[in-house]
Structure formats: C-alpha cells, structure tokens
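Hi V.,

Quick status before I head out on leave. The structure for the redesign project is tokenized and pasted below; the design run finished overnight.
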C-alpha cells in the first residue's frame, strides 16, 4: 500500500495557491507562443495512443453529423507535426456495409511510424493494418470475440489486447504477428491498455493493482496497488520508469471499455504514481483535484489542464524540481493537452476544433 498523505497534501496546497493567484490576477497572458497546426470546422478528438513513436505524426478523429441518416460520421486523419499537412485520411464506413467507427482503444502505431493498427466498432473482432504512405489496408488478426486496448511491443513482433468474451469475462492475450500464435496471460483484467516494458515484460492491471508479467518465465509480480482509485492509464518512459495515472472518476463506454484520456472525462481528480523498476519502489508524484480532463506526463514533468470560470489554463508541474508554471491561458478558450513531444514541445487542442503546438524552448 502506498503512503500518500504528505504527498497529496503538498500537491493540493501548491495547486490551490497557484490557482488562486492566477484567478485573482485578472487577464493572464500566455508566457509562450503557440503555433496553430490545424483548424477544422468539425469536432476533433484524440487519445494518448494516437501519437506516433517518432513523435512526428498524430491520429485525429474528425466528427460530423449526417442530417439525412441522423447519425455521427467519423473520419480518421493523420496530421504531420512537422509542417501541419494531412498525410492520410480514412473513412471507416467504407470498410463496412453499415455505419461503423474506428475504436479508439485499438489504435496503435508500428515501431517505424509508418502504419497503424485499428479495429472497427461496434463489432471490433478484427484488427486491420493501415499503411499510411500507400493507403493499403489489410486484416492482421481476426478473433472469436471483440478486441480492445491494443498495444504493440517495442520490436513490433508482439501485440497484446483484451478480448471480451462477455461483459464480465475480459481476457488479456498476446499474439505473435510473425507466427500468428495467441497466448492467454490472465483473466478478468481491468479495462486499461497494457504497457510493454520490453518484449519480455508486459504491465497490466487487475482488481486495482498493477502487475508486471514475465513472458519468458510466465510469472506475475505485483508493482502497485490502489485501494480507493480507478487505474486510468500506464506510461512506460523507459525500462526503468513506469507512470500510473489514477482517476477518482472514470467514463465507461460500450462493452464496459473505459475510454481513458477521453475529453468527455471531465472534472475528475488525478493521482500520478511513479514506479522505479530498478529499486522496485513506488511514490506519489502529485494529486490533482478538479482536473477537467486527462493529463500528459513525461519523465520529469506533467501538464495539467484546469478551467476557472471562463479562463482555461495549461499548467506544467516540474516534479523533479518541485515547480509549477503556467504555459497557456486564454479567456473563453478550452485548452486540453494531447501529447508531450520529448522535452521540447506540447501538443494541445483548443475549443475542440484547433490543434496547437507549444514550443518550450
């Protein structure tokens, strides 16, 4: 069990002082200039797994309303973070005879940032591979049941996913793309996308506990346990460091799938736990109250969005040096962090229809 009283108290005090100072200071000017990468007339959505490994591309969902069919229409776009151009587009409904959508928790880039894996909902038992450069689409895996929470190993040879036999029967499996061999790792796991520490080790959660599974020796080791909060997301920044993001609240979508990182998950508390694989120790970095959506975390800092009245704030908390700074603030705007690009830039969405890149240096 984690000891968290002093850390949580300290985090709340720091943020409370900062937010009170910002809210009483009147109009706040952004200390850094953001560059607009894309402006759309339609709603844009994204998830943490949509950023490519080389951090030069990102998948975006563009949503529109079909007045004739009275249904939502989804289009997938690949945005270049180098020059803001659209590198590829996909209309999911062209792959099916009925209206269908790319399931967010099945999207994953290959190691070369050239292709993405995805499945279609509402029946997402087949995983496709889309080559963005050639626009070729091929079936990779067809399971007996729906698949979600897809993650590819570092080498690109293994893929993990959760297969849903029923609402309550969720099974974590690994599939070798090279040999088309499937292995079941565990049953009744949480609705959270696993994280690959290496090709031989997979991190997943079950019953509010985080485990590392040794694929070679078939052994499971508990890393972190949370008695009171729901586990929302993992992020392995190296073979030595794992971040676990926990929610005080969570949004559940179709088939019991937690839509981690979704913009609809608003006004929740977040706890960020750092686990060191070398020392086998865990510590709370920060506890945030009133976060309006998901957070973006790196090895040394976290970007947190807040909304005070009509003032939108992106705050950066440097937990290595225990410092809190304001990145972006704009009256009437709704800014949400998308991804952190190394230590140099932060990608964020404004008012659901614009994508900005904020350079830190």
């Amino acid at each position: 069990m984690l000891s968290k009283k002093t850390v949580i108290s300290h985090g709340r005090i720091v943020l409370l002082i900062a937010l009170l100072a910002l809210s009483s200071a009147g109009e706040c000017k952004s200390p850094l200039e953001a560059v607009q990468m894309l402006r759309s007339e339609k709603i844009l959505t994204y998830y943490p797994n949509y950023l490519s490994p080389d951090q030069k591309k990102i998948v975006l969902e563009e949503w529109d309303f079909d007045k004739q069919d009275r249904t939502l229409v989804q289009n997938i776009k690949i945005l270049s973070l180098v020059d803001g151009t659209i590198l590829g587009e996909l209309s999911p409904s062209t792959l099916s005879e009925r209206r269908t959508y790319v399931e967010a928790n099945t999207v994953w880039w290959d190691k070369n940032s050239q292709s993405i894996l995805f499945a279609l909902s509402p029946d997402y038992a087949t995983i496709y591979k889309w080559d963005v450069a050639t626009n070729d689409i091929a079936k990779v895996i067809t399971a007996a049941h729906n698949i979600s929470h897809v993650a590819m190993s570092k080498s690109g040879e293994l893929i993990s996913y959760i297969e849903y036999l029923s609402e309550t029967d969720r099974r974590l499996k690994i599939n070798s793309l090279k040999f088309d061999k499937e292995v079941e790792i565990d049953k009744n796991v949480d609705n959270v996308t696993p994280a690959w520490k290496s090709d031989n080790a997979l991190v997943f959660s079950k019953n509010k506990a985080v485990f590392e599974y040794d694929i070679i020796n078939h052994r499971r080791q508990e890393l972190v346990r949370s008695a009171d909060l729901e586990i929302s997301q993992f992020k392995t920044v190296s073979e030595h460091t794992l971040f676990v993001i926990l929610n005080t609240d969570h949004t559940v979508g179709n088939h019991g799938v937690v839509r981690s990182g979704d913009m609809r998950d608003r006004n929740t508390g977040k706890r960020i736990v750092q686990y060191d694989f070398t020392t086998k120790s865990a510590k709370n970095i920060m506890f945030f109250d009133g976060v309006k959506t998901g957070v973006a975390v790196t090895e040394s800092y976290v970007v947190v969005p807040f909304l005070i009245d009509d003032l939108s704030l992106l705050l950066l908390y440097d937990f290595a040096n225990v410092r809190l700074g304001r990145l972006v603030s704009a009256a009437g705007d709704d800014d949400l962090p998308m991804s952190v690009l190394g230590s140099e830039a932060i990608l964020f969405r404004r008012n659901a229809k614009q994508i900005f890149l904020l350079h830190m240096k």
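Above is the designed sequence. The chain has one helix and 29 strands.

G. will cover questions while I'm gone.

Best,
W.
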